[in-house]
């Protein structure tokens, strides 16, 4: 299948500083060690190549222009052809997962446990503080029945919202009631 291409990244003076091969949008994507220039300085050299043809073309161009480490003008780290093209097998994927996640030994588990215990021991707040706050939070949570009420109905039943409010000599059982009966905003009621 001929879906590969070769490309060059150009400096502002239009001289190439990187030669690569790829498929799809590879030439526009991020590279680990190579800065990607603006699109007007990316040059598509050859397209509709097989993988082998693209590798040969890339290696040829790198050998002609040469890498900086060998006195040339390119910042390529290698002589080309090392790119990955085939999909990973299940076995390879498994090996890569295992390499990323080293096994946790019993010794490591103990170190983590000791570290966390030490951290909690030095915590300025006792565990009762968290238990008390969790209890307050649970009391504040609405029940399923309350969740279906409108917000104003729910607020009418709250302690802080149910304080009597005086406006122009008339006492209302709550701010919500005062707002509903006068048609004024909370700000105007408090101000007046």
What is the topology?
Blueprint: E1 4-10, E2 16-22, E3 42-49, H1 51-65, H2 90-100, H3 106-121, H4 127-140, H5 144-147, H6 151-156, E4 165-167, E5 170-172, H7 175-182, H8 186-191
Antiparallel strand pairs: 1-2, 1-3, 4-5
Summarize the structure.
By secondary structure, this protein is an alpha+beta fold. The chain has helices at residues 51-65, 90-100, 106-121, 127-140, 144-147, 151-156, 175-182, 186-191; strands spanning 4-10, 16-22, 42-49, 165-167, 170-172.
Overall structural class, as computed from helix and strand content, comes to alpha+beta
Helix tally equals 8
Q: What share of the residues lie within helices?
A: 40-55%
**Can you summarize the main beta sheet?**
3 strands, antiparallel
Rounded average pLDDT = 80
How far is the N terminus from the C terminus? 81 Å
The counted number of beta strands is 5
How does this model look, in words?
This protein is an alpha+beta fold and 192 residues long. Among the domains are: 67 residues, no CATH class; 48 residues, no CATH class. The protein has 8 helices and 5 strands. The strands form 2 sheets. Strands 2-1-3 form a 3-stranded antiparallel β-sheet, covered by helices on one side. Strands 4-5 form a two-stranded antiparallel ribbon. A hairpin with a 5-residue loop joins strand 1 and strand 2. The radius of gyration is 35 Å and the shape is elongated.
Question: What are the main properties of this structure?
Answer:
192 residues, alpha+beta, two-stranded antiparallel ribbon, 8 helices
